[in-house]
Amino acid sequence: MNIKRNKPNILITGTPGTGKTSLAGVIASNNEMNHIDISSAVKEKELHDGWDSEFQCYILDEDKVCDEFEDVMVKGGNVVDHHGCEWFPERWFDLVIVLRTDIKILNDRLEKRNYNQHKITNNLDCEIMQVILDEARNSYKQEIVVELPSTTLEDNENNQNFISQWIQNWYEKNN
Predict the structure, then answer these.
(1) Which residues of 20-56 are buried (b: 16+ CB within 10 A; e: fewer)?
(2) Which of 4, 36, 111, 170 is most buried, by CB atoms within 10 Å?
(3) C-alpha dihedral over 96, 17, 65, 51, to 10 degrees?
(4) What is the DSSP string of 161-172?
């Protein structure tokens, strides 16, 4: 289902530590869009079902999140970041970016966050098995899912340029 809006919605997803929040913030700021950090919103707006002590994070309530952001997403102009992607309504997004990071670099990033070893191992396994990429490919039209490397500063700059160009092309095509 295509929804006509004046600005696109973009999902930036990937394993924790791939740079989603940083990239989403820059893209939103540079393109006069809203940045929606789902993990922060879950905590701040209590869109969860409690705390998972094993993974040391809140248990996201997908229905609460969708209810909270439905009206905002319909309007467009949002850059959403979250490590999961398969549960969002497909109609919300015009572009789905899946960030991928070299395993050694990802491990270092997760250790710097003081993740416990179980959580680090789980996230590294997800990256190795390309779980998020497969979820995106299985949940959204193939033509809107783009896999981008996110290991180096050069990758980050290239990703910013790619997404900004995509946004410009979207405006030309849709307005």
Answers:
(1) bbebbebbbeebebbbbbbbebbeeeebbeeeeeeee
(2) 36
(3) 160
(4) HHHHHHHHHHHH
User: Domain ranges in the chain?
Assistant: 9-163
Residue 78: name the closest of 92, 91, 88 by CA.
92
Identity (one letter) of the amino acid at 65?
V
Over the Cα atoms of the chain, what is R_g? 16
Taking only the tens place, the pLDDT of each residue in 140-173 is 999 999 999 999 999 999 999 999 999 999 999 9
What CA–CA distance (Å, rounded) separates 65 from 51?
16
Q: For 9-163, which CATH superfamily applies?
A: P-loop containing nucleotide triphosphate hydrolases (3.40.50.300)
- Annotation: binding site: 17, 19-22, 113
The model's pTM: 0.96
Q: How far apart are CA 145 and CA 117, in angstroms?
A: 31
